[in-house]
Amino acid sequence: MSFRREKFVAAGGPDGGDGGKGADIYMVSDDNLSSLIDFRYKKKFVAENGMPGLGKNKTGRSGETLVIKVPRGTIVRERESNSIIADISGDDPVLIASGGKGGYGNKRFASSTRQIPRFAKSGFPGEKLDVILELKLIADVGLVGFPNVGKSSILSAISAANPKIANYHFTTLSPVLGVVKVDYMDSFVVADVPGLIEGASKGIGLGHEFLRHIDRCRLLLHVVDVSGIEGRDPYEDFLTINSELSHFDDKLAKKPMIVVANKSDIADREKITAFIQKVELLGYACLAVSAATGEGLETVIKTTAAKLKTLPLPQVYTPDYKRPEAEIGRKFDIKEIDNEYYIYAPWLERILEGTDVDNYESLMYFQRAISDSGILAELEKMGVAEEDTVHIGEFQFEYMD
Ligand SMILES: Nc1nc2c(ncn2[C@@H]2O[C@H](COP(=O)(O)OP(=O)(O)OP(=O)(O)O)[C@@H](O)[C@H]2O)c(=O)[nH]1
Ligand SMILES: [Mg+2]
């Protein structure tokens, strides 16, 4: 609230400017990030407030947009409804929460009948959201298989990625992406995920946490240790992993799959041939390779690239989150418990938050909003009596006729 005060200006009129807009919060994909680990430590993000309006009709400064970087493929859900606010797969920043609206300076309230408005109106608060971030990597191809079968060895042999490789189970602890160059024009992205074991779909081992990463892969490369050096039967391995995939999500089991019989350098010829025959009988293409010698890998790249050309692009999730204001409008709900009245109307709480309850004129504004919406009439119909308590959000009022 401000009034013009100047020498030689008889009665200075109202000149309080509007408040600035609160900053919006956006999210944008950043290919340098490969996990959501940073959000374990920092969970609360607050964008700047707008600055209050100033005299001489000056609008307050707006808050500076807050842009949060997330790994590409992050799905943002609203916690309570689980609905999707955004799928951060593209390059453009996506609006997650809008900043509040600046208030109106008293200049706005001047009219022919109200020449000296002694009140201004606070702005509306910005959106507050609880969100769940879920990373579903964007990769064309997912490498699946038991631990230690050579998934990371294959990725490192066909791409520039440098995953850790070692002769024990669960060497890979989090997904690693690699770009495979087919020729100077063509490339595809491969995700190496931690090894799966029997029961993975129920949370045994590590795989469960990571199965959702292959949710968007267009094709799976199912890697099997055909040498059986760990004492397991390769064909049994193959069936076990497939059944874990289908237990986790039928969609995964139905994905196009190429079977890669690895460690062929230390496997018997007959064993390899027998495995390939059984797998082909089930209708899969199967290629014998050795990540150690590089044999067969060129064929894997060519076959994969050719197959990908026939498959649709990775799935992008469509947002289905409804921002509350748009949906609720001016609806309300009143409950009566022991002669106390509870009004449920989020829009009204927002107006109330922006009302200076100690200022008579400002409060009149609020009163009018209540009666225009039909809330007063409804309270009377419900039998509200003098001095009954009426609750709106965190506020309490006494009803007076
Ligand atoms: N002889 C031979 N050894 C291989 C071959 N491929 C991988 N290995 C070895 O197998 C072991 C496991 O390889 P990794 O690539 O770490 O296996 P992984 O499937 O990524 O294992 P996890 O990350 O634990 O699931 C390493 O000691 C590799 O050197 C191969 O073609 N031939
Ligand atoms: Mg690995």
Provide structural commentary:
- With 401 residues, this protein is of the alpha/beta class.
- It folds into 3 domains: 1-135, GTP1/OBG domain (Spo0b-associated Gtp-binding Protein, Chain: A), CATH 2.70.210; 141-309, P-loop containing nucleotide triphosphate hydrolases (Rossmann fold, 3-Layer(aba) Sandwich); 324-398, 2-Layer Sandwich (GMP Synthetase, Chain A, domain 3).
- It has helices at residues 38-41, 151-158, 207-211, 234-248, 250-253, 269-281, 297-309, 324-328, 346-353, 360-372, 375-381; strands at residues 25-29, 66-70, 74-78, 84-88, 94-97, 131-135, 141-144, 176-181, 187-192, 219-225, 257-262, 285-288, 333-337, 340-344, 389-392, 395-398.
- The strands form 4 sheets. Strands 8-9-7-10-11-12 form a 6-stranded mixed beta sheet, sandwiched between helices. It has a 4-stranded mixed beta sheet with strand order 13-14-15-16. Strands 2-1-5 form a 3-stranded mixed beta sheet, with no helix packed on it.
- A hairpin with a 5-residue loop joins strand 3 and strand 4.
- The longest helix is centred in the middle third of the chain and has 15 residues, at 234-248.
- The radius of gyration is 31 Å and the shape is elongated.
- It starts with 24 loop residues before the first strand and ends with a strand.
- The model has no long low-confidence stretch (mean pLDDT 87).
- Bound molecules: guanosine-5'-triphosphate (GTP) and magnesium ion.
